[in-house]
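We were asked to recover a plausible sequence for a given structure. The inputs and outputs are reproduced exactly as logged, with field labels preserved.

PROBLEM: sequence recovery
POSITIONS: 325
GIVEN STRUCTURE:
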């Protein structure tokens, strides 16, 4: 009985804070190391600045695990913010299943959740703000088929089990390739892991086995993309000898695209994702109706279009504009 009363009081306290349009929002990324998450952070900070300028008092708390395979730490972060009864949580779950129960617990304690970037096996969150990752993977597969003239041997270096965003990209890529009977998939069961270091080791292992046969390679996010490009350089297969397509706009990958070691990048808009994640949560707290799915867009970038102003903004996100060093 006491716990029920305490829970009710906590919920009433949250409601009272919301009524005053004074919001505390925890933004929890999958990790805090990769450049992608710095761009998401910049977007969240942009939303915070705009809201405060409009008189909607808002404070963002940015906290996540260091590595994108530390499920326990991300679960702990979610649970800690829920126990602090922040106004809302904006979460990029690093595991689509492992984070479902912590999100349910947060919602039951009166803390609503918006999910960004990577989907969650749950019906508890208010909205999903993300790239159409399956579409992005399809774009990569279709462009790979074009680069190879519809025939050749292809490798897919996967990212990590449980990462819904990259799993959707991998699925889309494979579905696109399946339309081209002249393309043979020679490796699609290897995972890079969460860092460039683990990705480099995986890339070396795959190339040691298939390096003499491969014509094209796809990597579904930043760490394996950077790692595989380096591994190809090491064996003299970069520069277009093996056609390579990556995902995300980290500075190393953008340089590799400029230098011709990558033939394309499928690029998200992480600043927009962080921005809309926070804005969507605030709209809910203000009593507005939300869309269940908000698409933040995806673009295929090549040497031909990378200098276009709109594309350049995606390749070089304005992180310093919104984040203090």
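RECOVERED SEQUENCE:
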């Amino acid at each position: 009985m006491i716990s029920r009363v305490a829970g009710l009081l906590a919920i009433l306290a949250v409601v009272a804070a919301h009524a005053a349009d004074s919001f505390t929002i925890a933004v929890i990324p999958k990790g805090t190391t990769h450049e992608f998450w710095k761009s998401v952070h910049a977007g969240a900070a942009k939303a915070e600045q705009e809201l405060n300028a409009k008189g909607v008092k808002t404070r963002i708390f940015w906290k996540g695990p260091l590595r994108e395979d530390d499920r326990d730490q991300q679960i702990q972060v979610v649970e800690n913010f829920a126990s602090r009864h922040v106004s809302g949580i904006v979460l990029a779950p690093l595991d689509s299943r492992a984070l479902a129960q912590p999100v349910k617990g947060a919602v039951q304690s009166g803390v609503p959740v918006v999910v960004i970037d990577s989907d969650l096996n749950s019906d508890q969150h208010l909205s999903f703000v993300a790239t159409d990752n399956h579409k992005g993977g399809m774009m990569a597969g279709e462009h790979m088929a074009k680069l190879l003239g519809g025939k050749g041997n292809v490798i897919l270096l996967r990212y990590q089990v449980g990462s819904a965003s990259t799993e959707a990209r991998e699925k889309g890529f494979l579905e696109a390739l399946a339309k081209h009977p002249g393309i043979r998939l020679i490796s699609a069961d290897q995972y890079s892991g969460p860092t460039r270091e683990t990705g480099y080791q995986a890339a070396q292992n795959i190339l040691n086995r298939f390096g003499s046969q491969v014509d094209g390679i796809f990597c579904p996010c930043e760490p394996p993309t950077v790692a595989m490009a380096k591994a190809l350089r090491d064996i003299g297969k970069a520069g277009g000898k093996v056609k390579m397509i990556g995902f995300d706009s980290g500075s190393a990958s953008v340089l590799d695209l400029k230098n011709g070691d990558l033939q394309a990048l499928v690029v998200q808009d992480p600043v927009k994702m962080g921005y809309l994640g926070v804005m969507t949560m605030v709209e809910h707290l203000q009593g507005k109706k939300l869309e269940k799915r908000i698409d933040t867009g995806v673009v295929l970038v090549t040497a031909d279009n990378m200098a276009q102003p709109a594309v350049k903004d995606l390749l070089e996100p304005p992180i310093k504009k919104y984040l203090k060093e």
